[in-house]
Design the sequence.
């Protein structure tokens, strides 16, 4: 039982990170019907920015919550900018081209960011240790279940960020514009919604959440590496599909399910299935419920 | 208050193509302040394309669109809405998953002082007030059309473009919509109306243009054209 609960706790903290990334995929898909394959690379760069900045803010890096928040904020800001420029430079010129062109471009952007980061004078191909900004400690122990301060911080912040996002999307004017563009871009423009601004804003928002996810991953498993975004991005993408792509609450549920599935697979089957389970889930979803958990099957009205 | 001689909208010799198909082959027409102008024509004549071209939703190959003497060809659709032209698109363009209120709020997207006008919209369309919290997709066709028009009015237009507002509606509701169109004009908003229902359109309109395969073939005052043999043959069933 204790073991089960421990896996549950670990799974939820991993899942909340997947959820943060999945929400970014879902938002961009909702608005542009584009699967932004470069999203995983934004997560990776979120960790890389933290790796660069932490020593700049404080050298030598001493564990402190203030430093962690400063690094998190700076990394989110930089990734927001990055997301803005990715859309502006790579996707916007292709807005009116066939969707396949955008998809190929997304893969191109993803590869570009991976290999650009691997350049020796940028970051390099060798994985580095992420600076320890919060010293890990068990803060809560109950019936053999340990919850660390890291897990509390990661889960707490992830959910806070997602609640803020929910607020932005459903309670603000820009959110109203986002939902209008995602339902019908042409009509949104006809109502005076500045479509380009809304799309830029969506990329900035998604990339900021990705930066937070990158910072959380690097804090929990203190390693930064130029290829780390690939698998994280893929799994979060599966989470978004599982929840129903384009649907924000769906992405959160999908992320949590993915985290739990992965953790339980590692715990009860074998850790070599860690990555396989994600894709097994993808195949099952596509076979039996292609619209995802919360997705609606679209009925085209004539 | 309304100066009937003042040109609000001037469409000058515009040409639009979809690939190899030329949808508009040089159309010139105008709407003056306070007028209802109707645009008649069969399916595929280019009526909807003309409205889209005015809103810069399709690229012009040639020609110009002037609004208050100012060219719109380099203006984005959402900016044109700000300047005072609103289009109620064919099929109404209701955002079905959002509530009636959210749809109305979107109509006033560029404005902050719109709430005070909601009452006026509800006075024009009382049914919308009852449905305010409902998702717009649950409305009937007539209600959706009213929502689409009400939403467009909240952008505070001087010129309203209506693309077949009577499409798919029951005769009684169509009458209702046409009464509203006249009422909106009496409030000082000029209207460019696309219709298949030529009888009704000619009754409310001041002037009329007939479009055939991308060209204006007949134009004149609505009274004149209502009695024109040529038009009768083509649109009024002989």
Sequence:
């Amino acid at each position: 039982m204790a073991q089960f609960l421990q896996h549950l706790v670990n799974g939820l903290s991993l899942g909340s990170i997947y959820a943060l990334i999945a929400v970014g995929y879902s938002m961009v898909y909702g608005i542009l019907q584009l699967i932004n394959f470069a999203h995983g690379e934004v997560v990776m760069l979120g960790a890389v920015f933290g790796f660069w900045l932490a020593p700049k803010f404080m050298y030598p890096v001493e564990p402190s919550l203030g430093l962690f928040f400063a690094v998190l904020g700076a990394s989110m800001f930089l990734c927001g900018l990055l997301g803005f420029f990715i859309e502006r430079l790579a996707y916007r010129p292709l807005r009116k081209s066939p969707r396949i062109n955008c998809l190929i471009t997304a893969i191109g952007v993803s590869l570009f960011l991976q290999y650009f980061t691997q350049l020796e004078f940028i970051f390099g191909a060798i994985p580095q240790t992420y600076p320890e900004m919060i010293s890990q400690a068990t803060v809560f122990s109950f019936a053999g279940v340990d919850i660390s301060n890291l897990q509390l911080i990661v889960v707490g912040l992830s959910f806070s960020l997602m609640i803020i996002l929910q607020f932005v999307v459903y309670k603000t004017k820009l959110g109203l514009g986002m939902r209008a563009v995602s339902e019908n871009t042409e009509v949104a423009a006809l109502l005076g919604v500045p479509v380009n601004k809304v799309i830029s804003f969506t990329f900035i928002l998604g990339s900021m959440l990705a930066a937070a996810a990158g910072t959380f991953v690097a804090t929990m498993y203190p390693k930064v590496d130029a290829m780390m975004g690939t698998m994280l991005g893929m799994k979060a993408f599966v989470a978004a599909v599982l929840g129903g792509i384009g649907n924000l609450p769906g992405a959160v549920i999908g992320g949590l399910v993915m985290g739990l599935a992965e953790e339980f697979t590692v715990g009860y089957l074998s850790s070599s299935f860690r990555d396989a389970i994600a894709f097994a889930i993808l195949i099952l979803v596509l076979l039996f419920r292609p619209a995802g958990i919360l997705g609606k099957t679209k009925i085209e009205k004539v | 208050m309304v100066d009937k001689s003042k040109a609000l909208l001037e469409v000058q010799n515009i040409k639009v193509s979809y690939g190899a198909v030329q949808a508009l082959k040089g159309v010139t027409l105008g709407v003056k302040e306070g007028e209802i102008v109707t645009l008649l024509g069969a399916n595929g004549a280019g009526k909807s394309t003309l409205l889209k071209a005015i809103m810069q939703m399709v690229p012009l190959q040639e020609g110009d669109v002037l609004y208050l003497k100012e060219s719109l060809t380099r203006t984005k659709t959402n900016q044109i809405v700000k300047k005072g032209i609103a289009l109620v698109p064919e099929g109404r363009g209701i955002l079905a998953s959002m509530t009636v209120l959210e749809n109305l709020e979107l109509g006033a997207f560029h404005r902050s002082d719109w709430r005070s006008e909601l009452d006026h919209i509800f006075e024009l369309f009382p049914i919308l007030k009852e449905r305010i919290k409902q998702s717009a997709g649950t409305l009937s066709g007539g209600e959706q059309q009213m929502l689409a028009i009400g939403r467009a009015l909240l952008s505070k237009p001087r010129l309203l473009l209506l693309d077949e507002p009577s499409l798919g509606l029951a005769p009684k509701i169509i009458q209702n919509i046409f009464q509203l169109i006249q009422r909106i004009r009496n409030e000082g908003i000029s209207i460019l109306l696309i219709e298949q229902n030529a009888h009704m359109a000619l009754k409310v309109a001041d002037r009329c243009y007939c479009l055939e395969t991308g060209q204006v073939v007949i134009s004149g005052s609505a009274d004149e054209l209502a009695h024109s043999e040529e038009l009768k043959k083509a649109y009024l069933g002989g």
